[in-house]
C-alpha cells in the first residue's frame, strides 16, 4: 500500500521536572537535535518535523538544517500539538516521536508503519508500542501507564492503575507498559483534535483513552526496545554515558 508517512516530534521548552531539558547537551548536540537527526536517519519517513512552542527550539532545528513548525495555540497534549501542525500537510500516516527520547531505533518504528501497510480494510486508527513488564514496583507505579489488550492485539484500556487486577494471587497475569510512540491515520488525529475530553481521559490524564472513548481502534505492537527518556539531569548523564560507550566500541 502506497502511503505518505511523516514523523512529527512535539517539543515543549518548559518541563516541570527538568526545565529546558531538550536543549541539554548530548554527545555534542542538543537532545532535540539528536532526536530529530536520529529520526531522519532511519530512512522511514518522507519528511520529519519538530513542532514546538519555543523559538529557542525552533531556531535550534532550523539553523542546523532541520524542519520546524511553531505552534499557534497552547495545547494540553502532544497529540493536539501535532494535529494542529499537520492539518495542512500532505500525508497519510503521522508518527509521533517523543522529543525527549533521543535513541530512536528503526525496527520498532518500522513495525508501527507495517500495521498500516497491511491494513487493507482501514480498520486501524492508531498503532502504538507496548512492552512486557514484570517488576512489581513498575506495575504498581502510577507514573507507568499500563495497557490491556484483546486476542487480536487491540487495546482495551490504558490506566495508571494495576490492570488487570490480580484478584487470584495464585494466577499469573501478563502486564504491559505503554511506550509513548504513536502512529496515527491523519484523519484519526484530526478527529482527536476536534473531540472534547471525556471522563476517563480527564481522570487518568492519558490522552490515548480519548480514541477508545470515541470508538476508535488502537493496535498495540510489542517491543523489547527500551530507550532513555530524558526526564531528569540524571537521565541526561546516563544518556551521555551511553553515547561515550558507543563511541568507544567504534574506536
From TrEMBL:
<comment type="similarity">
    <text>Belongs to the KdsB family.</text>
</comment>
<keyword id="KW-0808">Transferase</keyword>
<dbReference type="GO" id="GO:0008690">
    <property type="term" value="F:3-deoxy-manno-octulosonate cytidylyltransferase activity"/>
</dbReference>
<dbReference type="InterPro" id="IPR003329">
    <property type="entry name" value="Cytidylyl_trans"/>
</dbReference>
<keyword id="KW-0548">Nucleotidyltransferase</keyword>
<keyword id="KW-0448">Lipopolysaccharide biosynthesis</keyword>
<dbReference type="InterPro" id="IPR029044">
    <property type="entry name" value="Nucleotide-diphossugar_trans"/>
</dbReference>
<dbReference type="Pfam" id="PF02348">
    <property type="entry name" value="CTP_transf_3"/>
</dbReference>
<dbReference type="InterPro" id="IPR004528">
    <property type="entry name" value="KdsB"/>
</dbReference>
<comment type="function">
    <text>Activates KDO (a required 8-carbon sugar) for incorporation into bacterial lipopolysaccharide in Gram-negative bacteria.</text>
</comment>
<comment type="pathway">
    <text>Nucleotide-sugar biosynthesis; CMP-3-deoxy-D-manno-octulosonate biosynthesis; CMP-3-deoxy-D-manno-octulosonate from 3-deoxy-D-manno-octulosonate and CTP: step 1/1.</text>
</comment>
<dbReference type="GO" id="GO:0009103">
    <property type="term" value="P:lipopolysaccharide biosynthetic process"/>
</dbReference>
<dbReference type="GO" id="GO:0005829">
    <property type="term" value="C:cytosol"/>
</dbReference>
<dbReference type="GO" id="GO:0033468">
    <property type="term" value="P:CMP-keto-3-deoxy-D-manno-octulosonic acid biosynthetic process"/>
</dbReference>
<keyword id="KW-0963">Cytoplasm</keyword>
<protein>
    <recommendedName>
        <fullName>3-deoxy-manno-octulosonate cytidylyltransferase</fullName>
        <ecNumber>2.7.7.38</ecNumber>
    </recommendedName>
</protein>
Amino acid at each position: 500500500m502506497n502511503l505518505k508517512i511523516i514523523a512529527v516530534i512535539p517539543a515543549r521548552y518548559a518541563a516541570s521536572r527538568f526545565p529546558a531539558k531538550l536543549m541539554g547537551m548530548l554527545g555534542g548536540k542538543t537532545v532535540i537535535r539528536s532526536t530529530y537527526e536520529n529520526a531522519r536517519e532511519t530512512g522511514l519517513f518522507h519528511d520529519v518535523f519538530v513542532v514546538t512552542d519555543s523559538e529557542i527550539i525552533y531556531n535550534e532545528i532550523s539553523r542546523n538544517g532541520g524542519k520546524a513548525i511553531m505552534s499557534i495555540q497552547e495545547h494540553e497534549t502532544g497529540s493536539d500539538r501535532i494535529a494542529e501542525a499537520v492539518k495542512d500537510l500532505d500525508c497519510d500516516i503521522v508518527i509521533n516521536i517523543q522529543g525527549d527520547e533521543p535513541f530512536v531505533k528503526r525496527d520498532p518504528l518500522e513495525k508501527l508503519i507495517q500495521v498500516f501497510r497491511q491494513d487493507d480494510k482501514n480498520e486501524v486508527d492508531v498503532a502504538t508500542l507496548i512492552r512486557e513488564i514484570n517488576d512489581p514496583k513498575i506495575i504498581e507505579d502510577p507514573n507507568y501507564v499500563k495497557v490491556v489488550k484483546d486476542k487480536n492485539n487491540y487495546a482495551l484500556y490504558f490506566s495508571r492503575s494495576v490492570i488487570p487486577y490480580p484478584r487470584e494471587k495464585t494466577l499469573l497475569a501478563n502486564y504491559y507498559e505503554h511506550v509513548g510512540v504513536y502512529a496515527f491515520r491523519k484523519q484519526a488525529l484530526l478527529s482527536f483534535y476536534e473531540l472534547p475530553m471525556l471522563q476517563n481521559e480527564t481522570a487518568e490524564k492519558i490522552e490515548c483513552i480519548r480514541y477508545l472513548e470515541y470508538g476508535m481502534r488502537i493496535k498495540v505492537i510489542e517491543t523489547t526496545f527500551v530507550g532513555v527518556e530524558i526526564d531528569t539531569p540524571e537521565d541526561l548523564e546516563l544518556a551521555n554515558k551511553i553515547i561515550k560507550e558507543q563511541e568507544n566500541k567504534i574506536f
